[in-house]
Amino acid sequence: MKTLFLNPPSYEGFDGGAGSRYQAKREIKSFWYPTWLAQPAAMIEGSKLIDAPADDIPFETAIGMCKGFDLCILHTSTPSFDNDVKVAERLKKDYPNMRIGFVGAHVAVLPEESLNASAAIDFVAREEFDYTIKEIADGRPFAQVDGISYRQNGSVVHNRDRALIDDMDALPHVVDVYKRDLKMENYYIGYLQHPYVSLYTGRGCPARCSFCLWPQTVGGHVYRTRSPKSVIAEMAKAKEFFPQAKEFFFDDDTFTADLPRAAEIARGLGKLGIVWSCNSRANVPFEYLKIFKENGLRLLLVGYESGNQKILNNIKKGIRLDIAREFTKNCRKLGIIIHGTFILGLPGESKETIAETSRFARELDVETIQVSLAAAYPGTELYRQAIQNGWFRKDDMVRNDGTQAATIEYPGSLSAKEINDAVAKMYSKFYFRPRPIGRMLANMAKDPAERNRRLREGKEFLTYLWGRKGADVAATKDKETAAA
Ligand code: SF4
Question: Stretch 331-353: mean pLDDT, rounded?
Answer without folding.
Answer: 97
